[in-house]
Amino acid sequence: MLLSGKEPSQSLKDSVREKSKLFEQKFSRKPCLAVVFAGNNPASAVYVRNKKKACEECQIDHLDINLEEDISREELIGKVEELNRDEKVDGILVQLPLPKHLNETEIISCIAPEKDVDGFTNYNLGCLLSEEKGLVSCTPKGILYILDYYGIETSGKNICVMGRSRIVGKPIAALLTQKSRNATVTLCHSKTENAEFYLKNADIVICAIGKAHAVTEEMVKEDAVVIDVGINRVPDASKKSGYALQGDFCYSREDGGKLSVTPVPGGVGLMTVASLMENTLISACRRMGIEVEEL
Ligand code: NAP
Domain limits at 182? Predict the structure, then answer.
């Protein structure tokens, strides 16, 4: 079975749009997301465009901050601080990766936690670990949404997360081990010995390593659920762009066969953008002193 991201992401965006309308009626303004994009990385440009389109769909205002590739550390921090102070901005997203001369951790740490809609600051990661109210990073949040949408139980299940990045692997592992999810999680990385063992024992596999087709169907249980986070550009002369997008997971049957698999493209990526919209709404409501449920 294919676990498409189309229907769940649409359902989430529809819900955000309806609530954004209520927000506007109540506060006479729309929620507002500022997207800071330094440089001209082509993959990032596509992501920024998709976010802008989603904002339009969800009745969320967007502020595009396009900066030169060679922007200095001081100027970029100054820009983020200006957005922190800007009353009409509810969410700030700094598009990664940043140009090489900039330290991403330092720049992200300058975002006010209540506007950190990507959930990447130490404050929001800390909230996640301590199971307190904060902003949960968009890709892990989108993964949970897709699991719930398709009725996939996590309680008591063995889950193997491949990849320990700060934006996907670590937060999804932490979320799945929370008391509300009760999974037993193994977090693998490039130095894991015998990853095949953990993969074969997992009911659910989450691939977030960034290597095209590095995990294959022979490595997992025949009826495993596989959430493929990877988005890899591989050369493809048949495409106008010259490349195709591939996930980290390789399976032979187009419909997944006995496996339940998220496709790439059309899977987790769509959920990430929809979750960003939801986080912007959450942040807008909290800044006005209410929770989304109180709209
Ligand atoms: P990242 O920062 O590139 O880190 C990759 C992780 O994978 C590292 O922890 C690395 O281990 C581990 N790794 C590499 N090879 C491995 C192997 N053979 N076995 C097990 N672990 C291995 O990762 P990321 O930023 O999370 O991105 C991962 C992929 O997801 C990329 O393709 C990215 O484009 C995609 N992505 C998609 C979305 C979405 O919305 N769908 C969002 C974010 C990212 P070490 O720590 O030991 O180096």
Answer: 138-269
Q: Any idea which residues carry the catalytic annotation?
A: 51, 95, 118
Measure 206 CA to ligand 1 centroid, in angstroms.
11
| 279 occurs within a structural domain | no
> What does the pLDDT read at residue 7?
98
Tokens of 69: 């590739």
Atom of ligand 1 nearest to the CA of 191: 47
Model pLDDT, residue 85: 98
- What parts of the chain have a pLDDT lower than 70? none
In a domain? residue 215: yes
Helical spans, DSSP H, in the chain: 6-27, 42-57, 73-85, 104-108, 122-129, 138-149, 169-176, 195-200, 268-287
Ligand 1 first shell, C-beta below 6 A: 139, 162-165, 167-169, 188-192, 195, 208-211, 214, 229-232, 268-269, 272
Of the chain, the end-to-end C-alpha distance in Å amounts to: 37
| pTM exceeding 0.90 | yes
Q: 39 CA distance to ligand 1 centroid (A)?
A: 22
Residues 241 and 176 in one domain: yes
Q: What is the pLDDT of residue 251?
A: 95
